[in-house]
Amino acid sequence: MSDWIFAFVHLFVLVAIIAYAFVLLAQGNTFRFGLIAICLIAYYFLVLHKPVKREIERRRKTKN
After folding, report:
1. Domain extent for 49
2. Smallest Cα–Cα separation from 40: which of 63, 14, 3, 62?
3. How many domains does the chain have?
4. Is 64 helix (H, G, I), strand (E, B) or coil?
5. How far apart are alpha carbons 11 and 17 in whole angstroms?
6. DSSP letters along 24-55, please?
7. How many CB atoms are closer than 10 A to CB 5?
């Protein structure tokens, strides 16, 4: 149960950060938008990319 809570809290925070970045973009603050976008992309590749690839592979194996 705690894994689900952890995942949903992080998903909510990620969506909130993306929404905030687009609010900044709408206000014309492209530098902050770009900074947030670069940090989110780096976070994905440094932290999430490997587990996502593993989960995709695991689901493919269980499907076959």
Report:
1. 2-63
2. 14
3. 1
4. coil
5. 10
6. HHHTT-HHHHHHHHHHHHHHIIIIIHHHHHHH
7. 9
